[in-house]
Amino acid sequence: MRTFETFLRDWPRERREALAASADGDAVLSVLHRRTLRPEDFLILLTPAALEHLEAMARRAHEETLRCFGRAVNLFTPLYLSDHCTNQCRYCGFNARNRQPRRHLDVDEAEAEARAIAATGLEHILLLTGDARHIASPEYIASVAARIKPLFASIGIEVYSMTEEEYRMLVRHGVDSMTMFQETYNPELYAWLHPAGPKRDYAFRLDAPGRAAAAEMRSVGIGALLGLDVFLHDAFCTGLHAWWLQRTFPGVDISVSVPRMCPHEGQFDVPHAVDDRLFVQYVTALRCFLPRAGITVSSRESAFMRDHLIALGATRVSAGVSTAVGGRATDARNAGQFEITDRRSVDEMIAALSANGYQAVFKDWEDPLGARACGETCGEHVGL
Ligand code: SF4
Fold first, then answer.
1. What phi and psi values does residue 114 have, to the nearest 5 degrees?
2. pLDDT tens digits, residue range 131-144?
3. pLDDT tens, position by position, 188-221
4. 169 lies in a domain?
5. Ligand 1: which of 100, 180, 199, 201 to mutate, judged by most atoms within 8 Å of the beta carbon?
6. Structural domains counted in the chain
7. Which residue CA neighbors atom 4 of ligand 1 most closely?
8. Which residues contact 38 (CB under 8 A, 6 or more apart)?
9. Fewest 10 Å CB contacts: which of 2, 173, 210, 272?
10. 0.85 exceeded by the pTM?
């Protein structure tokens, strides 16, 4: 099977730039009249010419969102299990070169933190670790997932890239979704941003969502970290990646996360900061191109921005977020991975959604094998 890494070679930077240079207002309006958009249409919606038609794009995005998702927004929260990391990503506070106290939850501590989250009513949880396999191994993540499975309808992971076999093992232990941030789709920039550590392998990371989908992960999410490369390129490649995944794995729920960096994040000067208007253009263009894809907006964004993006395409938001390891039911001895802006609790988020005419959904999926009821989701117990 062709991988996305090879498919992306059909869309070199020069081809994207030439198409963007030819886009004008008429081309944008013509795209907005098409029932189904092609990748080249999506690219046109990301150009400066489309900014002039942002209202028309917003109308289309709003209609597509209502048609495919109604007025329902899924709530989830992250649980940071470990901030040990062997990588040196230049833009991240967990970078291995940063001398700071590190923390790793054992399985009992992870369960205590998860119980505190479950007590808020949330049913979807996202497990995160740094990239340190010798500490937070796939088997450790599987143990945590199996232990907390009785508490949640859905367990997602946002961790380092794994092999297809490792993803399969996690699925057997109750993990049903994975998110992988490529950070940037520019291979040269990627190499500079990741000078050392296993994450340096661009192609292995790029094809991780495809391996997870092949391993029968129910839901797969992707995203670029906006601000690292020129907006057009990472925005386009992210949408193209989601489009390719939807076509290659039609049974898998594909979603896009849209994190963007603040102009000066930590010690890192963001080279291509994305302003609010460009950010709205991105979300509306994604929704027009991929009507069925979930769009996740994290608490990096302000409450104001998140509330407004829900009408334009966001279908998943986090609530009650902490990016530190521990702190809910166990000690927290470290700083968070990045600054969050929207600090609303689960109850505050429900109230805000309701005030805007939307319903907070805690659970949009049930394990069809009923494994949750027995509390054991490894292969031995569900007969896989
Ligand atoms: S972004 Fe992830 S892999 Fe990179 S240094 Fe931070 S925690 Fe480690």
1. -65, -35
2. 999 999 999 999 99
3. 999 999 999 999 999 999 999 999 999 999 999 9
4. yes
5. 199
6. 1
7. 89
8. none
9. 2
10. yes
